[in-house]
Amino acid sequence: MRTYNPSTQWQPDVHAYLQHSLGRESFMRTSKALCLPPKKLAVRVNTMRIKPDEASHKLQRELKLQHAPTAPYSSLPYLLILPGQGPFDVDYANLCGPPGAREVVVNRAAGEAILKGADVYVPGVLAASANLAAGDLCAVSCALELPGSNWTGINRGQVLRPPSPGAKNVSGSEAPDGEGLPRKRSKKNAMPATVDRRNLHLGAGRLQMGRKEMFRAQQGLALKMEHRIYDIPACNGIMRGEIMMQALPSVVAAAALDPQPGMRVLDMCAAPGGKATLLAQLMGGQGTVIALDRTQPKIERIQSLAADLGLSDCVRAIRMDATMAAGPLGHLSSSLSLKYSQGDGFLGGKLQEGDPSSRQDSACEAGNAGSQGDFGTSCSTREEAKGGPIGTEVAHTSHDHSNEGPFEAESFDAVLLDPPCSALGIRPRLTHSWSLQQMLSLGRYQRQLLAAAIRLLKPGGRMVYCTCTINPAENEANVRFALDRWGHWLQLEPVAVPGISAQPGLVGTDPATGEGWLSPGEANFVHRYDPADEHNDCIGFFISSFTKTRSMR
User: Disordered: where is this region (predicted)?
Assistant: First the structure.
């Protein structure tokens, strides 16, 4: 039976760790929910350019919606919610014939994009049935990477064939592209029986090119979805500079910082710039938001978004390693210095070369597989999490602050820290390849960023620490660490955004490290967004808020 009913696949040690930390039932619900797209699409209105009610009616016209989007949160009047629908049943037998007869198999990244409303592009296609022509209506299924591998078990261009009656391999047989008849398959070209797509069918779409053209092309639209299991509004390319997609918890994190006009605010890991530009928007464009990130392409993305939104005069994007952002001025407490041994995965305060926590799971467009890059995984790699430009063009500004040095200690009125993280809360996500050791290593690295953030924050200033992961080693354990290490100067506060509800933090002890998490009272101060919570229906996220009570000089 062709259905969509998967659970996120984890490495065995991570599966055991999260199940112990969250509880078995909660973990199972979360693993199911992570495979589904949120049906409440959050759209932030750029109030520097358009009023929320005007944006709502314009969106209704652009998307041909029956009803105008609403702004359901009184404390976030600039956040509109577009409702999605699903799941729907797809009659594959009548639309596409028997299994394997007219079918296209896509990679995981393309499959996840389809769930969010995208069509299928050439780079995302792995295999297809024989003799397909442009205009054919085909079933679309997704193949996942095999355990411990980046390979799905399907070589690009293979031919799907209907399975023999009673065959155990539900994927069907195949031959290399261009072969009209089956031939003896080599080990390299064989599709193993473990490639099981029965619970990974995503709907049906109409081919925009024939089979041979599809596998000879390097780019282009391969298939346009017509029958989806989820109908999620696609906002890409519309109302550029006036709206942008940004997840509810990401908006709450910026709102919790409560920046005021004229302030000097720091966003330590800012790409692609969603939170930095929202901070500038909340300040009415008056004041300065320093937006840091490590690479020039990320800085250019921040600059492009700020230019789109008309906030370039307020947002200053600077290329810098945020762990080195606090200058050596003044006589600060030695408690701010964090040093790690090689066993911790760090050397000299920097990530060791080859350390697993240096992997980055970058954002994926439909049809493009994910990649592992040079830093750590963060919400900044997912535009739907931190917020990114709706359009695809890149606009550049003339402002260049890339050569600025470290900042004076205690020189920022407010600091937002959304560090590189394991991104285990992103939806939809069908597999995660992180090991437990890599996740624990990320948690330790984030403490270096916390040390820099606290050093840079003025007395009386507020710091928000947030992640887009459900991993307690990167969330509650780091809040506990900050309070134990810097409690003389730091106080945990409730996340104060009226009308927004979330789950409390976790209490107890980390099963892997033995470190404590939060007390019951502290747990009520933080926001933990559960992907399985149907009320918010958003990504998994964690938010904590601190006030610096006194100077460290």
Answer: 155-193, 347-405
